[in-house]
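Intended use. Records such as the Renalase entry shown here are meant for training and evaluating sequence-to-structure methods. They are not intended to support clinical decisions.
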Amino acid sequence: MTPRVLVVGGGLTSAVTSSLLREELGSRCQLTVWDKARGAGGRMSTSRGPEGCGTVDLGAQYITVTPQFQQLHNKFYSELQSAGLLAPLTATVQGLRPAPAGSQHLVTPRGTSALVKHFFSRAEVTPEFNQRVTEVSTDGAQCAVTTETGRTESFDAILLTMPPPQILELGGTLKKDIESNPALSSGLRSVRFSSRYALGLFFGAEGGPKVDWGAKYVSDHPVVRYVAVDNVKRGQASGPSSVVVHTSVQFGEEHVEKTPAEVQPILERHVTELFPDWPAPTSVKCQKWRYSQVTEPFPGRPGHVVLSEQPLVVAAGDAFNRSNMDGCLESATGAARLLVEKLRQKEA
């Protein structure tokens, strides 16, 4: 029988791993992707405003690639640039920290989620959304995976790309497997994330803010840390205008247990105080990132860890490496290599 592989998560690590599995195994692997969100992207989320108001990247903003990773991941970057999904950052970013010599700053002309969708397309898999996994149980041969709606299916291997705190919340026998391995359990519990909120402001084609920068870091404000006029940042000065605002980590952590609806008016008030001449947006969206960026990765940064040997359950993502695109690419490459090796062993 063709082995069934479940990938849990709809972000970059999941998409790239899926693409590499399809590339290596072709039809000899049945891929399924479940994600709790309503669309692909994870923290590379692009939100669409009302008709005629464009899109805004609520998560990752731009990609900085050092010469080392440009060479290591040239396959991915060349592919994305050739497809028009990555382009050099040409807009002014005020307060941008100096990067290592030879580094490139890249933007996503079609939004950051387009990168994720590209790799899912290459994997020939359509993610199923609104599928929140709550239990994973192993019986030595297969994994039974259950969602919060009670849906249960069996798989031969699983890749989990959710943050470690969410892995530790899973029910089923996998929880016991993790707890029986003190080093693994301790490592997962040691991972730390920052938290923050993002505010997306959507304007019509003619009504956006008039600024001479694409993005700016705000260093002297208690709430707002970063602002970008997203279309300008992407090199699209004309057309629908949108703005994204990221809060400081301190504000995010102080308000992490509040709802976006509770935080949104606070952020709108601060944006109005900072930019009193800006027009009123047509639409506003507030996003909470409980797991925004990894501040303390899994010890040793292995890229991925094995939660169960038989059947194979692997955890991967930037929590096991570094919190950027290259961390995700490196994690996905290693996880895919392991999955391919184990699945080929089962074929033999």
